[in-house]
UniProtKB/TrEMBL annotation:
<keyword id="KW-0472">Membrane</keyword>
<dbReference type="InterPro" id="IPR041916">
    <property type="entry name" value="Anti_sigma_zinc_sf"/>
</dbReference>
<keyword id="KW-1133">Transmembrane helix</keyword>
<protein>
    <submittedName>
        <fullName>Anti-sigma factor</fullName>
    </submittedName>
</protein>
<feature type="transmembrane region" description="Helical">
    <location>
        <begin position="82"/>
        <end position="102"/>
    </location>
</feature>
<keyword id="KW-0812">Transmembrane</keyword>
<dbReference type="InterPro" id="IPR027383">
    <property type="entry name" value="Znf_put"/>
</dbReference>
<feature type="domain" description="Putative zinc-finger">
    <location>
        <begin position="6"/>
        <end position="30"/>
    </location>
</feature>
<dbReference type="Pfam" id="PF13490">
    <property type="entry name" value="zf-HC2"/>
</dbReference>
Length: 268
């Protein structure tokens, strides 16, 4: 007879031993009365538990404990974690590119370059959201226009981009500490394929810089435009040509006037 250890005794209690091994355990217990008494007590406890919870054992497994559902939830959490990690990497990449964009040309970076970098950073953060992509939904455009106009101290329209294939999701107010007044508006649009584009709008007072610029930061293109009243940076993953075409719809609705000339494309 091989040596009997604790694992053998627990398997004996659970009825998981082969007949020959079970016989060895019973012989061992007969030779050790104190151990036999302990095993008998454990058997009584097991019988009591099974009697108390027998009705529960016959019930179906709750939906929340379904193995398939638990596996799906675990997989979803894993992918959400990967998505968050990818977003962090993307934001870091944007930060590195923005750092290049904002490198000092003399003593300070051009203010309009800071607005472009801020526009791309805000775009990266909020287009990844589902329930909280915007602060005020697009179906309340009148209120959104009034609210943002008051905060930016300018008349701000909500451009309709339906003819370009984009639906209006809504917008939000953002801090812009680099400019007088310290506020910016972000408007978000989405096409039928789920690709999103944002408009980052600030008052033009004190900004300076070119009237029109086009730059690539990370995976997104940013088209910057300014007139005497406002600046607007259109940000999206669409090709530069697509953003230029979209600008022809956006800018006349924001502030009527002649369209600016095409910019030089900068890729960072």
């Amino acid at each position: 007879m091989s040596e009997i250890n604790r694992d053998h005794l627990m398997a004996y209690l659970d009825g998981q031993l082969e007949p020959d091994k079970r016989a060895d355990v019973e012989t061992h217990l007969a030779a050790h009365p104190e151990l036999a008494a302990e095993i008998a007590q454990l058997q009584r406890q097991g019988d009591t538990i099974r009697t108390l919870f027998a009705p529960t054992m016959t019930e179906p497994v709750p939906t929340r404990l379904d193995p398939h559902r638990l596996a799906v939830m675990q997989s979803r959490r894993r992918w959400q974690g990967l998505a968050r990690a990818a977003m962090v990497v993307g934001v870091l990449g944007i930060g590195m590119a923005a750092g290049w964009l904002l490198r000092p040309a003399a003593d300070n970076p051009a203010l309009y370059n800071r607005l472009i970098a801020d526009a791309v950073s805000a775009h990266t953060v909020y287009v990844a959201e589902n329930r909280h992509a915007v602060e005020v939904a697009g179906n309340d455009a009148e209120h959104l226009s009034s609210w943002l106009s008051n905060r930016l101290s300018t008349d701000l329209a909500m451009p309709d981009l339906a003819t370009a294939g984009f639906s209006f999701l809504g917008g939000r107010l953002l801090p812009a500490p680099a400019i007088p007044g310290g506020r910016a508006a972000q408007l978000m649009y989405e096409d039928a394929a789920g690709q999103r584009v944002t408009l980052y709008i600030t008052p033009a007072n004190g900004v300076g810089g070119p009237d029109y610029d086009l730059v690539r930061l990370g995976d997104d293109n940013a088209l910057y435009w300014a007139n005497a009243a406002i600046t607007c940076t259109i940000v999206g993953p669409q090709p530069a040509e697509a953003l230029q075409a979209l600008a022809k719809t956006v800018f006349p609705q924001l502030t009527p006037g002649p369209a600016p000339t095409a910019p030089i494309y900068r890729e960072l």
